[in-house]
Amino acid sequence: MDGSATGTAVGHNRLNGRFIAGNTEYRARQQRLAERVRQLNLDYDPSPSQLALLPIIARHLDDALRGRSAERRVRAGNAANRLLRLIPKRQRQEAPTDFEREMWAGLKGDKSKL
Q: How far is the C-alpha of 111 from the C-alpha of 5, rounded, in Å?
């Protein structure tokens, strides 16, 4: 059983397992998930229909990092990997090196850049 159901998790009432007043773990998890979705959106190039998968992937990745049992962490990591394979990675624009700039200037016939 999960620790939150038995009341052993930090910030939970021991009698009913619910969050106690003033607990910020719920808000902290929501912020972690929102940040992870933002980062996934920057790293991957999802279609509009794949955007709905990003919050699910973020939850799986968070479970993979913070799961209580090894089995839960492995399952969450594998689920996130399967879903991430469906979304293409975003192509990064790399800055051209000095050699590439000189080569392009030479090809264009622009001798002032050399």
A: 73
Q: CB within 8 A of 72, min separation 6: which ones?
A: 63
Contacts 24+ apart (CB under 8 A), 47-55: 50/86, 50/87, 53/83, 53/86, 53/87
Output the CA torsion sign for 56, 60, 62, 66: positive
pLDDT digits (tens, 9 = 90+) for 54-106: 999 999 999 999 999 999 999 999 999 999 999 999 887 776 677 777 777 87
CA 103, 106, 107, 113 torsion-angle sign: positive
- Give the separation between CA 20 and CA 42, rounded to whole angstroms: 35
Which amino acid is present at 1? M
In angstroms, the CA 50 to CA 45 distance is: 9
> What is the CB neighbour count within 10 angstroms for residue 36?
19
Whole-number Å distance between alpha carbons of 38 and 77: 19
Q: Which residues pair with 44 in a beta bridge?
A: 89
